[in-house]
Amino acid sequence: MVSIDIAQLYAWINAFLWPFFRILALLGTAPVLGESSIPARAKVGLAAVLAIAVAPALPPMPQLPAGSYAALGLGVQQILIGIALGLTMRIAFAAVQTAGEFIGLQMGLSFASFFDPATGANTAVLSRMLNIIATLLFLALNGHLIMMGALIRTFETLPVQPRALNINGWGVLLEWSSQVMASGLLLALPLIIMLLTVNLAMGILNRTAQQLSVFAVGFPISLLTGMVLLAVVLPQTSTFLSGLFEEGYKSMARLAGALAGH
Q: Under a CB-based contact definition with an 8 Å cutoff, are residues 226 and 191 in contact?
C-alpha cells in the first residue's frame, strides 16, 4: 500500500507551484503567447504542463507550507519575476510598433487607426502591419521556444529562494525600455529620411511654383512614395528584427542576473 505523508505532499506542491507562478506570469505578459486572443484557460494549462515538465530538472525548491505567509510572499515574488521577464520581450515588439507610428506619421497615415483587441487601444495601421510581420518572424525563428528556454535558465541564475530581490534588476528593465524609442527610430529611419526629403521638395516646389497646390498633390505623392519604400525596405528588416530579438533574450538573462545580485 502506498502511503504519502505531509512532508512528501509539501515537497510535490513546492516543486510544482513556484515554477508554475513564474511561467504563468511570463505567459500572461510575453508577446505572442500572452496575446488576449489566447484563452486564459489555455495559458494556465500550458503553464501547468511546462511546470510539470521542467520541475524535475530544476534546483531544489524551498520547503514552505503552501498556506503560510512566507509561501504567499514567495509566490508574489515569482509572479513579479515572470512579469518582468515577459515585459522584457514585450519591449522588443513595442519598438516595432513605435516604428510603425513614426512611419505612419510621415506618410500621413497617422489618422488611419483602428481598435486593436491585443492592446485594448486604437493602433495605427502600419504599426499593426509591422507587428504582424515581427510576430511571424518571431515564430519562424522559434523565438517562442528560445524565450521559454531563457525563462527555464533563469531558475539557475535566479533560484527560487525566500529572499529580497536586488533592486538593480529593475534598473536593467528600465534601461532596456529605452529601446522602444531608439530601436523604433532606427527601424523607421530609412523611410523617415526619404519622406522628409519628399516633403522638403514639396516645400521648395510650393515656393517656386505658387500656382501649384502642393496640399492637393503632396499627400498622394507622400503616400505613394511611402508604399514604394515599404515594399523595398520591409524585406530587409529581418536582420534588424532578429538582432532585436537576440538582444531581448540577452536582456532576460541580464535581468535575472541583476535581480539575483550577480
A: yes
